[in-house]
């Protein structure tokens, strides 16, 4: 069977930056540590006046195609995953293809285009669609362009406001990939939930605290489902664990539960037993409540062990290195986590070829998906080509007043006339409205 996976990845961040500790916290009357330590976030990327999901997606895709010397005829499929779409009929992928046709010779007339929706998990679902299309032998030697793009804005004053972000991740899914091969095994945890939704409205209705619990519950189900096909997971099996990162504190909560799960009945649990006891088993308790209390106490003790801390530092923390500085990119978030982990590994001399990643995606509403990826020999070269640091350092910092203006610019209910804060250069920009209400774009040299 041919190896199929992610051949290349590129990231495009919104060009503005809101510093949470310095700028956001004082206005909210909050201790900056609530954001930096509690949520684990330092800043959010936000889109300038001329940026939106199309420009960010097209800019990421253009960079990827140029870097890999690709032409439109090499692409048989363009799928966009987003929860920030502005049209219920015409998919964002058509706009992005239109942008790319402005700068590449040829066209995408024979590429299948679509738009995927299931909150943040749809980025991974689009990668799946591409994988299945190639595996089914329908790709005619061509690759798929998968673009996860979002402006993850919340209503002003919503608790989620601190976790906002904007950016796009473009991924090339191909045979014999250079970056990671995807496992055929997958696990799902899926249920009808109302934790976070946008019923025909721009900003989400969120039950924040409940959404955290739903994330953990669905992720657990997905992990059990994955193990049912791939076998039990051991903490040493995976070098990195990129998870959907709405904010790093969420992943911190998930990580300790995952570790508790994967060490059960292993030599790690045995080795820890003298210090923190064995994991509470339900048969030892009269009621479910007593059992849950005992599990919670065990988890608190586990969190402080050297074994857990070492595993967290090695497998999880590296995946948060970009996310901490960009906020939630919804559909792109888990793909930013993968890129962050691989980038950190390369910079710290970790050899990952042939090693495996455990990837956990999540979308509210709600569904978690877990699969494995095997790192390919071309990974260091691919990751070295990312220019994430340059992009992040080049963002224009916003004062709180400027942040309020830019939030209004992107709020569909407001009619704000604000000058751009940055000057576009060699990139696609939003260029006003057409006669049928369509959005127009042009490439700026
Ligand atoms: N120093 C250190 N830590 C501090 C602190 C301080 N001074 N002040 C507060 N904290 C800690 C708190 O203890 C808390 O940590 P724990 O949860 O570990 O106890 C953390 O900082 C956040 O504080 P609060 O819980 O008081 O924060 P909040 O209620 O204002 O907001 C939230 C938290 C509800 C998650 C909010 O950010 C939110 O609604 N976010 C949007 C929804 C979301 O992202 N949900 C995640 C799961 S759903 C999903 O993943 C899909 C998606 O992408 C949206």
With strands numbered from the N-terminus, the spatial order across the biggest sheet is 5-4-6-7-1-8-12-11
Shape: globular
Q: What percentage of residues falls in helices of 4 or more residues?
A: 25-40%
Radius of gyration: 22 Å
The class by helix and strand makeup works out as: alpha+beta
- What is the distance, rounded to the nearest whole angstrom, between the alpha carbons of the first and last residues? 44 Å
Count the domains: 1
The helix tally amounts to: 15
Name given to the CATH architecture: 3-Layer(aba) Sandwich
Query: Which blocks of ≥5 consecutive residues have pLDDT under 50?
Result: none
Quaternary structure state of the chains depicted: single chain
CATH superfamily: Thiolase/Chalcone synthase
Query: Which fold name is given in CATH as the topology?
Result: Peroxisomal Thiolase, Chain A, domain 1
Describe the structure in your own words.
- The chain is an alpha+beta fold and 445 residues long.
- It has a single domain (4-444), classed as 3-Layer(aba) Sandwich (Peroxisomal Thiolase, Chain A, domain 1), CATH 3.40.47.10.
- 40% of the residues lie in helices and 22% in strands.
- It contains 15 helices and 15 strands.
- The chain has helices at 20-28, 32-39, 53-67, 92-103, 122-135, 208-230, 248-263, 267-276, 288-303, 306-316, 323-326, 333-347, 379-384, 388-393, 400-410; strands spanning 4-13, 16-19, 43-46, 75-81, 112-116, 143-152, 165-175, 180-190, 196-197, 205-206, 356-363, 367-375, 396-397, 427-433, 439-444.
- It has an eight-stranded mixed β-sheet, sandwiched between helices. Strands 3-2-13 form a three-stranded mixed β-sheet.
- A hairpin with a 3-residue loop joins strand 11 and strand 12 (367-375).
- Helix 1 crosses helix 2, helix 3 crosses helix 4 and helix 7 packs across helix 10.
- The N and C termini lie far apart (44 Å).
- The site of acetoacetyl-coenzyme A has 27 residues, from helix 2, helix 6 and helix 7.
């Amino acid at each position: 069977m041919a190896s199929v996976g992610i051949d290349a990845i590129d990231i495009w961040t919104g060009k503005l930056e809101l510093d949470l500790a310095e700028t956001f916290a004082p206005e909210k009357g909050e201790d900056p540590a609530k954001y930096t330590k509690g949520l684990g976030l330092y800043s959010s990327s936000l889109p300038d006046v001329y940026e939106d999901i199309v420009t960010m997606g097209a800019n990421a895709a253009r960079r990827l195609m140029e870097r890999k010397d690709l032409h439109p005829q090499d692409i048989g499929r363009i799928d966009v995953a987003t929860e920030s779409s502005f049209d219920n009929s015409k998919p964002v992928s058509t706009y992005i293809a239109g942008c790319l046709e402005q700068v590449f010779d040829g066209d995408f007339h024979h590429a299948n285009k679509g738009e995927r929706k299931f909150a943040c998990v749809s980025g991974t679902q689009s990668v799946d669609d591409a994988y299945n299309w190639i595996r089914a032998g329908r790709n005619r030697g061509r690759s798929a362009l998968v673009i996860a793009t979002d402006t993850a804005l919340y209503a002003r004053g919503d608790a989620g406001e601190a976790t906002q972000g904007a950016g796009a991740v473009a991924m090339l899914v191909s045979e014999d990939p250079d970056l990671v091969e995807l496992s055929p095994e997958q696990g799902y945890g899926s249920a009808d939930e109302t934790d976070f939704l946008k019923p025909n409205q721009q900003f989400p209705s969120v039950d924040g605290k409940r959404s955290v619990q739903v994330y953990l519950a669905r992720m657990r189900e997905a992990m059990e489902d994955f193990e049912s096909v791939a076998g039990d997971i051991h903490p040493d099996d995976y070098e990195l664990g990129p998870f959907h990162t709405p904010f790093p504190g969420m992943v911190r909560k998930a990580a300790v539960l995952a570790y508790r799960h994967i060490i059960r009945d292993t030599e790690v649990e045995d080795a820890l037993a003298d210090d923190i006891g064995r994991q509470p088993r339900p048969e030892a308790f009269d009621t479910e409540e007593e059992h849950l209390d005992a599990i919670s106490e065990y988890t608190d003790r586990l969190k402080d062990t050297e074994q857990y801390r070492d595993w967290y530092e090695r497998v999880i923390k590296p995946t948060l290195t970009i996310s901490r500085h960009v906020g939630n990119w919804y559909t792109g978030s888990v793909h930013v986590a993968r890129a962050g982990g691989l980038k950190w590994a390369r910079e710290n001399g970790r050899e990952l070829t042939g090693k495996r990643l455990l990837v956990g995606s999540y979308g509210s509403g709600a569904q978690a998906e877990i699969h494995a990826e095997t790192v390919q020999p071309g990974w260091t070269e691919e990751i070295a080509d990312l220019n994430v640091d340059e992009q992040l350092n080049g963002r224009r910092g916003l004062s709180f007043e400027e942040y309020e203006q830019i939030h209004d610019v992107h709020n569909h209910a407001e009619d704000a006339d604000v000058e751009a804060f940055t000057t576009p250069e060699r990139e696609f920009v939003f260029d006003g409205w057409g006669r049928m209400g369509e959005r127009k774009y042009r490439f700026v040299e």
